[in-house]
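hey can u check if this looks right to u? its 115 residues, i copy pasted from the old doc so theres a chance i mangled smth
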Amino acid sequence: VSKKAAASSSGAAASSVGTGRNWVSYGFDRKDETNDRSAMNASFFFTVTLCLVLGSAYWAYVPDPQLQDWAQREAYLELRRREAAGLEPISKDFVDPAQIVLPSDEELGNTEIVI
């Protein structure tokens, strides 16, 4: 028997039993290859495209929750204002020393002061 005849007879036997092709299910539909492949393609499309791509784009453009960008811009504006007014960039007396009330030595007593 020639190879061609053997292949045609085995192909006829396989087509009468099932689809005639070796098919391993992706786990979405174990009976229909077309539905199985369509469900696999749809699930990977939604997983990769929507979750990873759109999720990454959202994460990249989400507003800064700790307002670090705003604080840095505000600091640059304040430094520019102080330089234009001829003031020091950072004042050593941020709070007026006359407004600070310190306890006397009698009030402190034996309290240890760590500097």
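The radius of gyration is 38 Å.
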